[in-house]
Amino acid sequence: MNAPLIEFKKVYKRFGANQVLNGVDLLIYRGEITTIIGKSGGGKSVLLKHIIGLILPDSGEILFEGRPLSEIKKAEKRAFKKKISYMFQGTALFDSMTVFENIALPLKEKTELKDAEIRERVHNKMSDLDLQDIDDKYPSQLSGGMKKRVALARALVTDPEIVLFDEPTTGLDPIRKNAVHSMISDYQKRFGFTGIAVSHELPDIFYISQRIAMLDEGRIIFQGTPKEIQQTTDPVIREFIQGLETRRDGLTGMVPRPMGEERFKEEMDRLRRFRIAFSLILLTVRNMDEINLKIGHVKGQIVLKNLAEKVKQYMRVTDTCSRYGLNKILIFLSHTNLEQARMFCGKLSDELAQNETMGIGPAPGFCLSISAGFAEVKKENHIEDLIANAELSQNQLSEFRVC
Amino acid sequence: MVPFVRSTHFLSAVGRWTIFQIQEIGRIALFMFRGIVFIFSIPFQIFKTVNQVYFIGMKSVFVICLTGAFTGMVLGLQGYYTLVKFGSEGLLGSAVALSLIRELGPVLTAIMITARAGSAMAAEIGIMRISEQIDALETMDINPIRFLFSPRLLAALISFPLLTAIFDVVGIVGGYLSGSLLLGINPGIFFSRVESSVLMKDVTGGFLKSIVFAAVVATICCFQGYYTHTRAEGFGARGVSLATTSAVVISCVLILITDYILTTFLL
Question: How far is B250 from chain A (nearest CA, A)?
């Protein structure tokens, strides 16, 4: 693996009698989203503040591109700070400035952009985050969720290379929460920033993170991919994850991915014992990026929500559907062969064709493209292989113009 | 052995206190120094400074006029009854004008602005500190001292002398009101005494004082707000209230102390 962008080496920090960080070793790689999970009050925010230099460690080193931050010269440190931005847990918006002034401040103070250009960039970010027409409002006039989004807009407006998110979605409703996640993931793909997030949103955060680190008792007790942490046998980690995971995905009302994978195992058992084959269908909103870009992330989430509702209408009691990713829904149809699965999709497609707008209403003409991939399970197989198969066999389920 | 131990405890407590106070003075001096340096850093923060001049200066004019008028009037009253004992009530004009221009103008103006704008500065910056807004500035690589303190310092340096001038003039008119209109001193004598006794030295001395007071008040008030979070005796809103209180108290005491020191040099 390539060299880490940021590395914590034996970082200790104590506040009074409270040892918050007790020898943290952590690797953060360029271009990935690393999420730090752990108990409340466990020092996750403190860890994040160490990266940007708001808090200095008692001992230990934080390396940036292999060099200790404490030894970097002043000019370089400024360059480093320019690349990095921080979204505070308590938003930390300037309460005597308007929303527009808040978001525009980093551009106004630190760049030489013209006023018109600043206005355009700020408004772009605001419309991305569904924050229209509140330019002249003050933070205290906004709801908690809106403040969060304003803070996010302010953190992203400078197009930073490294973004630190301290609980970016706590207190948001499911659609907005997913929209923020989708936006973080989308921006991360588009601009390739390195994201470091502190979050309690399990398992949603697994869809967008490439790496997960768990902080417990002042140490990092796990770091690895979301898949690895879900398969871990460590009782502390398991208990923590299962405690936080929701039984229903807030947006789609389906079971979340880890539970979907549990159901897959049950189906597999049935196959083994009774030789009952089943099929799986992977529905993908193919042009989610286009939707996000053209009409905003919130609308993108609404499309997925409506699709999920349609799917649920057609399901039998024995079928399971689960959210598999930001724009994917995975369906298990028990006792069903490939042909029947295709028929199921045919009906779904007809239904979708009738309901053209998918809840996003009149919009600039572009096509919503939803595809379906199939796999029939007749023998023992890994879920990953089946999904890869389904991805390969994807064909157009429905494509229609929203106008 | 017990008394000995106790006395070392006492001594070490005194020592700790002294060292802390000296460190605090050092911190304040550094804070002020950085604030002054950032006034001259490019790009100049003209808009923010003008805003602060409006807040510290323009919005204080009414209060300053009011206090100036009544200070002048009471000076006229007191002065008259003192001078009349010696039959020298004709000197009332110079008594009023000199005490206003040399002492009362700069001092009372500074104290009034401390109460009005200084407390506001401490509270505003203190709230920004406890709600992480100052940390947010730092994460954006915006120097909080430059962004918050320098415009206020510069605005204070501009506003204090101007408000002092208003205070002086209004005060002299106040003295004239009570001395001449009420108690019947000839207005011609009153104003000719004002003119003949006030020298340019008095005026510049008064302005020098008000400039020094401006630096003291702005620095103390912003410093108290800026370091609200380091206070041991209170956090959050309580910390801000304590910071505001000590900003006003320390500023007022320091105004009087520096006034004494400056006067010894100026006379």
Answer: 27
Give the pLDDT mean for A283-309: 78
Topology classification of domain A257-402? Alpha-Beta Plaits (3.30.70)
Residue B147 falls inside a structural domain: yes
CB contact under 8 A, B132 and A88: yes
Would an 8 Å CB–CB cutoff place A90 in contact with chain B? Answer: yes
Lowest mean pLDDT among A70-84, B97-111, B183-197: A70-84
Q: Which of A54, A78, A81 sits opposite B135 (nearest CB)?
A: A54
Q: List CB contacts (< 8 A) between B45 and chain A.
A: none
Per-residue model confidence as pLDDT tens digits over A358-367 = 666 665 567 7
What domain range includes position B197? 45-266
Using a CB–CB cutoff of 8 Å, tell me whether A52 touches chain B: yes
Mean pLDDT of chain B: 90
Lowest mean per-residue pLDDT among A225-234, A294-303, A319-328: A294-303
Shortest alpha-carbon distance between residue B143 and chain A (Å) = 10
Taking CA atoms, what residue in A is nearest to B44? A109
Number of domains in chain B: 1
pLDDT at A403: 42
Predicted pLDDT at B2 = 46
Q: How confident is the model at residue B54 (pLDDT cuts 50, 70, 90)?
A: very high
- Using a CB-CB cut-off of 8 Å, the residues of chain B touching A49 are 135
User: Could you tell me if residue B90 is inside a domain?
Assistant: yes
Judge whether B233 is closer than 8 Å to chain A, CB to CB: no
Tell whether B102 is covered by a domain: yes
Q: Is residue B39 part of a domain?
A: no
Yes or no, beta carbons of A81 and B135 under 8 Å apart: no
Fold of A6-244: Rossmann fold (3.40.50)
Q: Do A54 and B142 touch (CB under 8 A)?
A: no
- Residue spans of the domains in chain A: they are 6-244, 257-402
User: What's the one-letter identity of residue A288?
Assistant: M
| A77 shares contact with chain B (CB less than 8 Å) | no
What is the percent of chain A where pLDDT is above 70?
A: 94
Strands A219-224, A211-216: pairing kind: antiparallel
Q: Which residues of A touch B127 (CB under 8 A)?
A: 95
- The answer to whether the complex's ipTM is over 0.90 is no
Whether residue B55 contacts residue B121, with contact meaning beta carbons closer than 8 Å, is answered with no
Q: Which two tokens stand for residue A28?
A: 């953060």
Residues A216 and A42: beta-carbon distance below 8 Å = yes
Residue A83 predicted with pLDDT over 70: yes
The 3 state secondary structure assigned to A346-381 is HHHHHHHHHCCCCCCCCCCCEEEEEEEEEEEECCCC
Buried b (16+ CB within 10 A) or exposed e, A372-393: bbbbbbeeeeebeebbebbeee
- Is residue A157 pLDDT above 60, yes or no? yes
SS3 of residue A20 by DSSP: strand
